[in-house]
Design a protein that fits this description.
The protein is an alpha+beta fold and 261 residues long. Helices cover 17% and strands 43% of the residues.
């Protein structure tokens, strides 16, 4: 199925939002809860599936929904369609600080493998599935990188990455990455999990026990601030977890303590 041709504009710097302009009859598909605002004439409907296979039966839709459950995503995806007679806009916001990546799927070969929480929205006709990693080591030790999403199509797709985004082009080289820092990679790149180092480095190096290893020919997208890393740092410094209070020792910290009392 050919994807709808949509126009878009990415707004903001660190807390970005993407505005998508829909012609009459055009549709964009998004993860549940990603929409920020929409203009009149745009109607949305939660559907079981991405709509890339309109003749798919109920059994196929249930199987697709079951696969989405494995990635931790909602069973349903939301379809936003312009039912008016003029162009209208709908916007989708990133869930935490970072960048929204606009990917022209036709220019990268039509297939992209990404982290399960990286997908934000895409033109109708884009197929969003899952990509199991074949090797046993990836399954047990890959963490965030075990079950990944597979995006197929020839239109625009939008991903979200935390912090700053780095693009690496592999021409047969090998790149070792923290599993949480991997956002996506194109066809031609092989993904595996390998031991981070010797026992001393694994336990005391602070980089985890295993690293993602990517090799081959293709493009790799990396993020500087995985959500899991940010969440762990917040929890580690929360008073309930034994950490210090935010702003403690500063003027604002003293005011906050007085207000709590």
């Amino acid at each position: 199925m050919q994807c709808h041709e949509i126009d878009y504009e990415v707004l903001g710097s660190e807390m970005q939002i993407v505005e998508i302009e829909l012609d009459p009859g055009e549709t964009v598909v998004a993860e549940a809860g990603a929409m920020s605002y929409m203009e009149e004439d745009i109607q949305f409907e939660a559907k079981m599936g991405d709509g890339s296979e309109p003749n798919q039966g109920m059994l196929g839709k249930l199987m697709g929904a079951g696969k989405r459950m494995l990635t931790g995503e909602s069973l349903f995806m939301t379809h936003f369609t312009n039912h008016g007679n003029t162009q209208r806009r709908v916007a989708f916001a990133a869930p935490y600080p970072g960048k929204i990546l606009s990917i022209d799927m036709a220019k990268i070969g039509g297939t992209l493998t990404c982290q399960k929480d990286a997908f934000l929205c895409a033109a109708h006709g884009t197929k969003i599935g899952i990509a199991f990693q074949r090797k046993l080591g990836v399954g047990f030790f890959g963490g965030e990188g075990f079950i990944m999403q597979k995006v197929d199509g020839d239109g625009m797709a939008f991903l979200h990455a935390g912090g700053h985004v780095v693009k690496k082009r592999l021409e047969g080289q090998t790149l070792r990455v923290d599993t949480g820092c991997l956002v996506a990679f194109t066809t031609g790149v092989e993904y595996d999990i390998q031991q981070a180092g010797n026992m001393k480095s694994m336990f005391f190096g602070g980089e985890g026990f295993f690293l993602a290893t990517l090799r081959g020919h293709g493009t790799v997208l990396l993020q500087s601030l995985p959500f899991s890393r940010m969440a762990n740092r917040i929890l580690a410094n929360a008073p309930s977890a034994g950490g210090s209070k935010k702003g403690e020792g500063s003027l604002l910290g003293g005011l906050a303590n007085l207000m709590e009392q």
